[in-house]
TrEMBL record:
Transmembrane segments: none annotated. The keyword Cell inner membrane does not apply. Residues 173-289 form the LD-carboxypeptidase C-terminal domain. The keyword Protease applies. InterPro entries: Carboxypeptidase_A_C_sf, Class_I_gatase-like, LdcA_N, Peptidase_S66_N, Peptidase_S66C, S66_fam. This is LD-carboxypeptidase. Keywords: Carboxypeptidase, Hydrolase, Protease, Serine protease. Belongs to the peptidase S66 family. Residues 15-130 form the LD-carboxypeptidase N-terminal domain. It comes from Hymenobacter yonginensis.
């Protein structure tokens, strides 16, 4: 069944910033608010911003209530998660998406927000995997920020990536699905789990041990998540960790080891993840991936 795309934003629309995971202060979000206003949007800072419960943006009830209020408010046309970290899985099963289904809106974020991207996709709705407000001003992130704006406003995008030695050539079409590898493993078997068959999967992560990346790829493979993929995008695996005895493979080599069991096209080095170049991807939107000697290209259909 085709996924549903919320209406794209227009000038003067109202958007909300919330903290479903880690905390973010109004001072930390000031630059993002100014950027969104420069796009012609009106910004609401949810009650989960500028508060903290240990590392979280308020306790579970504050974060759940804030997200639910912004989800149900018909005046809010997009919800941006201020940052990732950890915490979204603690509240996802207490959120009611019934009113959202009647009046869908864009939800955007990455990292821990992979939970929301996948949960919405499991319900049949598109969302945006992209840079979050806390990172709007990062050096080198201008292109990523522009890609988020274009995704929110429905402007055309086409991503071109340089060749990579581990790429496997081919062409694939399918809906985009994916995000943070550790979250994809965590969500397996839950109500937020998503089907990957016939889809283009993208993966990224940060600070993971090399053996743990292998373990998570074993899990994806054993649960059938790789077997019927249309294609695979391998994004940033930032700051990988190793043990005293080296694991012996890079993150890209580990992933390719499992991809080599199948014949779908693979594009390594795709600019998505915990780096300044983190291009917005619309989860659930049909796309075409082309990988050849000149590199890889991704465009929406």
């Amino acid at each position: 069944m085709p996924t549903t795309a919320p209406p794209f934003l227009r000038p003067h629309d109202q958007v909300a910033i919330v903290c479903p995971a880690r905390s973010a202060s109004h001072q930390e979000l000031a630059a993002a608010v100014a950027t969104l206003e420069s796009w012609g949007l009106r910004v609401v800072l949810g009650e989960s911003t500028n508060v903290a419960h240990h590392q979280f943006g308020g306790d579970d009830e504050i974060r759940r209530r804030d997200f639910q209020q912004q989800l149900d408010n018909p005046e809010i046309r997009a919800i941006l998660s201020a940052r990732g970290g950890y915490g979204t899985t603690r509240i996802i099963d207490q959120i009611d998406f019934s009113r959202f289904a009647e009046n869908p809106k864009w939800v955007a974020g990455f990292s821990d927000i992979t939970t929301l991207n996948c949960h919405l996709l499991a319900l049949g709705h598109q969302s945006i995997h992209g840079v979050m407000p806390l990172l709007f001003g990062q050096t080198g992130g201008e292109e990523s920020l522009e890609s988020l704006r274009r995704a929110l406003f429905g402007e055309p995008v086409r991503y071109e990536v340089a060749p990579h030695a581990l790429n496997r050539f081919g062409t694939a079409t399918g809906e985009l699905v994916g995000g943070n590898l550790s979250l994809l493993q965590t969500l397996t078997g839950t109500r937020s789990d998503v089907a990957t068959a016939g889809r283009i999967l993208f993966l990224e992560d940060i600070d993971e041990y090399l053996y743990a990346i292998d373990r998570m790829m074993v899990h994806l493979d054993r649960t059938g998540k790789l077997q019927h993929l249309a294609g695979l995008l391998v994004g940033h695996f930032t700051n990988p960790q190793d043990n005293t005895i080296p694991y012996g493979q890079t993150p890209n080599e580990i992933i390719q080891h499992y991809a080599d069991k199948y014949d779908f096209p693979v594009a390594h080095g795709f600019p998505v993840g915990h780096e300044p170049r983190n291009m917005a991807l619309i989860c659930g939107r049909p796309a075409r991936l082309t990988v050849d000697a000149t590199g890889s290209r991704l465009e929406y259909m």
